[in-house]
Design brief:
elongated, single chain, about 120 residues
Amino acid sequence: MSGPRSISWYSVVLLAGHMVMAAVATWSLWVLGSGLWIGAGAALLTLIAYGFVWRLRLAPAARNRFTYRQRLTVHLILGPAVVVLAVLTSIWLPALAGISMVLLGDALASRTEKEGLETS
């Protein structure tokens, strides 16, 4: 096992963006839920699934991290879905800020790595 890897500031921005998106999705599902328990259950399941995907495939320190193109695809699918949920609950600005932080943070973090952006 190798020693600890350094994490760039862009990766911290990426993490902050994912946290904003997860919080907005969780809040939106809580508000849109037809009852207290249904809203809480949907919000909790969304938060757990988002954390699971982040830790296993999207995090900069993940062992089996997706390539840049795969992460971009996930962000371009997940981002608009979170924005649509946010628009339904009138908190669209944090959702847009979150997806912007994710896209820019991931692109800049990939650019500063030794191998650069993976395009193949």
